[in-house]
Amino acid sequence: MSRTVPDHRTHRTRSRTLSVVLTGALIGGVGAATYAFVAPQDSSPVAQRGVEKDRKAEPVAFSTAGPGDCVTWTSQGDVATGFETVDCAAPHRFEVSTHEDLARYPTSEFGENSTPPDLDRQEQLTAELCTGPTMDYLQGRLDPQGRYTIAPILPPAAAWAKGDRTMLCGVMSPDADGAAQETTGRVAGADQSRAAAPDTCQRATGDTVSDVPCDQPHSWQVTSVVNLGENFPDAWPSIDDQNKYLNDLCTSAAVRYLGGKGDGSDGDDDGLYRSTLTPFWTTLQQESWDAGSRTVNCALTKSRPGDAGGGFADLAGDVRSGFTIDGNPPAEQPPRNPKK
Q1: Which of 44, 201, 231, 247 is the S-S candidate for 218 at Cβ 3.0 to 4.6 Å?
Q2: How far apart are CA 244 and CA 187, in angstroms?
Q3: What tens digit of pLDDT does each residue of 168-198 get?
Q4: How far apart are alpha carbons 312 and 209 in whole angstroms?
Q5: What global pTM score does this model have?
Q6: Rounded CA gap, 287 and 36, in Å?
Q7: pLDDT surpasses 70 at 128
Q8: Spatial contact of 286 and 236, defined as CB atoms under 8 Å apart
Q9: Is there a contact between 282 and 147 (Cβ–Cβ < 8 Å)?
């Protein structure tokens, strides 16, 4: 139920047909917010903000990190401390692709008395200094719709004030607020898709998809993770081929998630029928496949009838144990005749 949008995603269960239309921002499947290789908001998570508290922070030696290093830090609000280089197999927040010294920038912009670049300037520096070298470092293997983005990080203000003009370019996995999340392993060898773990609730807002607690409004709840590479071991499968494969797979997953066996027996999908929810899935575009992404999600969602954009209704609560749809319990469904 995920195709290149805009289009209609229609899934039929016995005696019920629902249609879900995604917003244009989710081209290529749920969670495909594209960062276009520019720094996201709050993309310098180590560059602390403020004045006095920043100058009291412990300076960090950014100059020791170089291409291929994985680095991490402790983040408490706007304050980042404990910057260190770690094994890439360990949890970390950033993988370095190139090391830039802004003091060598061919202007006086980053001279002795300069202030750190703001987010707009960081975005320009990303395009100028980070994008090309990072794509070369990854040998072109960056999923443009995946969970990683190219970004710079800058030293804390205290280190900047003492003359450190290091800017590290690399890749990180930002959360909905743009802060770097912990990941493990090197990016180039990872499955970079945005597939979430089962039971995760996610909310689509504009071009952003973020994980949220299930008791908060969300757009769908993940029922399973599917590795498309197991069924399509060779070339990228077309979106139609993915949809055909995932239709039965994700419908059975939805039935099992809501208490059935998923074997197609009479009444087995009663839980799904009474929920009024629709099985839904994500797909992978070819550029994502070429970057090594293989996993997609099956989920349960609900369209908002009559919505001009075909948007998602707001779910709240775990769909297995009592939930609401736009603030109301699922509508009572009429009895169905047994299968013949």
Answers
A1: 201
A2: 30
A3: 999 999 877 778 889 999 998 899 998 999 9
A4: 12
A5: 0.74
A6: 13
A7: yes
A8: yes
A9: no
